[in-house]
Amino acid sequence: MAAMWFITTLSLLLLSAGVCNGGVTSKYVRLSERSVDIPVGYFSPPPGFNAPEQVHITQGDHVGRSVIVSWVTPLERHPNVVTYWEAEGNHKHKHAAHAIITDYRYFNYTSGYIHHATIKRLKYDTKYFYELGEHNVTRRFSFTTPPKVGPDVPYTFGVMGDLGQTYASFSTLEHYMSNPKGQAVLFVGDLSYADDHPYHDNVKWDTWGRFVEKSVAYQPWIWCAGNHELDFAPEIDENIPFKPYLHRYHVPYRASQSTSPLWYSIKRASAYIIVLSSYSAYGKYTPQYNWLQNEFPKVDRTETPWLIVLLHSPWYNSNNYHYMEGESMRVMFEPWFVQNKVDIVFAGHVHAYERSERISNVQYNITDGLSAPVKDPSAPIYITIGDGGNIEGIADLFTEPQPSYSAYREASFGHSIFEIKNRSHAYYTWHRNHENEAIAADSLWLYNRYWYPYEERISGTMD
Ligand SMILES: *[C@@H]1O[C@H](CO)[C@@H](O)[C@H](O)[C@H]1NC(C)=O
Ligand SMILES: *[C@@H]1O[C@H](CO)[C@@H](O)[C@H](O)[C@H]1NC(C)=O
Ligand SMILES: *[C@@H]1O[C@H](CO)[C@@H](O)[C@H](O)[C@H]1NC(C)=O
Ligand SMILES: *[C@@H]1O[C@H](CO)[C@@H](O)[C@H](O)[C@H]1NC(C)=O
Ligand SMILES: [Fe+2]
């Protein structure tokens, strides 16, 4: 039955896909999900006096042996301790890590007490329980540390962006969580969309924290900042960019010698992940530029074969929305991406899905007129995955005709799965929300640029 449905859906897709210059613009008609926010009341805080809420974790060091646990207590600063222990074996060996506590005001909003505790020196590939709160108001969660970094360590990342907190966002998150393979999330920016509400109503940051807790309390989300994290509003005297985001989401940026949480790197299993900020200076001599220049030589592909970059504003995008907004960053950094054979770049910002060919546009200089992207086996594949389903709705106006650099594009909400098998092969899939998780609307065997730099076969081949 399932197989029949699968084949029927596939053939419908093939029939409906418009092919142009080798690229595909899917004509899939999505059922409409309301891009309106789920009411604040739906995301009520957990029961109990001062109960810890908005629990989230992320990697806490450069190699995956630490975890940053973050949570909010609404009424009192304490308790600020996370208790943790190995899931298997002797539960008597409980450990405690203490949190630093921060809070902030934004216009007339006052945050709860925001806690960040770094649990260090964990064992690799081990399940831990952790507990927050005290007395009769405790909450228990768990996570599994990644395997030790190494070239052939399989690992599966989910990829989401521009999530927000609408009925469509809900569908995206549920859909991702129904995939048992995802071990960590690469999040390409634009979290709560609080800034789309009057006075950037920061209650929306709290409700978003409650909304995503069911995933991010149990597996790390690797954060990247988008424009909706800026919360820059001089008209209400809020002049510090990224204020709510930086208070709420801590990342291990010092572990990669970064001077800002907005750009940093981590290693996880067989992947080296570089996170960049589209909304911080990246011109020559700036901190981010200098950091990235020093960062690429540190990547050892014999240790971490897969080189992945996260950034918010896409460099290759054939949608009318946000068209060419990533261009100035592309001009600055693309030669490094090609020289260093980045495997894949995940971006968000555009509320649709798109996958590029392996192309580069680095031969251009202002006198030679060579301004078109060309096929380049050393170039990354660029994925735009800003299709989490936020309050701003879908970006359904693609430029026509479809440019040759665009391999597949579709105006639907969804998420991706990036499944590393070994140093040479990874299986990549994109899942639109309206179908069973087993179905991938776009899928591709990716070949590692360092170990196996062959041309990938035509997309659409099923596993
Ligand atoms: C916790 O205990 C207090 C006092 O004993 C009680 O009032 C409260 O309802 C309890 N809370 C929960 C969540 O059980
Ligand atoms: C903040 O100010 C706005 C506009 O005056 C008002 O609607 C809102 O209720 C205020 N919120 C708080 C928490 O005071
Ligand atoms: C621009 O490209 C042309 C053709 O490759 C080359 O001859 C020229 O030296 C380049 N100019 C600069 C400033 O690099
Ligand atoms: C790597 O994984 C791919 C896909 O599962 C497989 O075909 C290939 O043989 C593997 N390579 C090695 C060296 O095991
Ligand atoms: Fe954005």
Automatic annotation (TrEMBL):
Protein transport is among the record's keywords: no
EC number annotated for this UniProt entry: 3.1.3.2
Top-level taxon: Eukaryota
Domain Calcineurin-like phosphoesterase: 156-353
SUPFAM superfamilies on file: Metallo-dependent phosphatases, Purple acid phosphatase, N-terminal domain
InterPro entries attached to this UniProt entry: Calcineurin-like_PHP, Metallo-depent_PP-like, MPP_PAP, PAPs-like, PAPs_C, PAPs_N, Purple_acid_Pase-like_N
Signal peptide start and end residues: 1-22
Cofactor names: Fe cation; Cu(2+); Mn(2+); Zn(2+)
Reaction equation(s) it catalyzes: a phosphate monoester + H2O = an alcohol + phosphate
GO molecular function: acid phosphatase activity; metal ion binding
Keywords linked to the UniProt accession: Glycoprotein, Hydrolase, Iron, Metal-binding, Signal, Zinc
Domain Purple acid phosphatase N-terminal residue range list: 52-145
Pfam families tied to this protein: Metallophos, Metallophos_C, Pur_ac_phosph_N
ATP-binding recorded as keyword: no
Residue stretches spanning the membrane: none
Domain Purple acid phosphatase C-terminal positions: 379-438
Similarity comment text for this entry: Belongs to the metallophosphoesterase superfamily. Purple acid phosphatase family.
Name this protein carries in UniProt: Purple acid phosphatase
